[in-house]
Design a protein that fits this description.
22% helix, 3-stranded antiparallel beta sheet
């Protein structure tokens, strides 16, 4: 699906800041930024990524902050017909 079609279907650009503990130094926190188009309020793409993280990566997640913004909505679309008057 194209990004434009996703935006019309309600997808939003989602940015998540993931703080996780370093495997060798659990008292230190490291930051990872994730960005993808996703659907509110359940964020299935982000949830899939966090599930992958828990399953495959060693650094346990401390916290996740999510920021989102709808980039375009159907009501913001205007049809314009351009033609040359003879």
């Amino acid at each position: 699906m194209s990004e434009f079609k996703q935006m019309l279907d309600g997808y939003r650009l989602v940015t998540a800041e993931i703080l996780y503990r370093m495997p060798d130094h659990p008292t230190l926190l490291q930051s990872y930024l994730w960005q993808h188009y996703d659907l509110e309020p359940k964020y299935p793409e982000l949830q899939r990524f966090l599930d992958f993280w828990d399953r495959e990566l060693e650094g346990p997640i401390h916290s996740v902050k999510v920021a989102t913004r709808r980039l375009i909505s159907p009501s913001e679309m205007r049809r314009a017909d351009f033609y040359t008057v003879h």
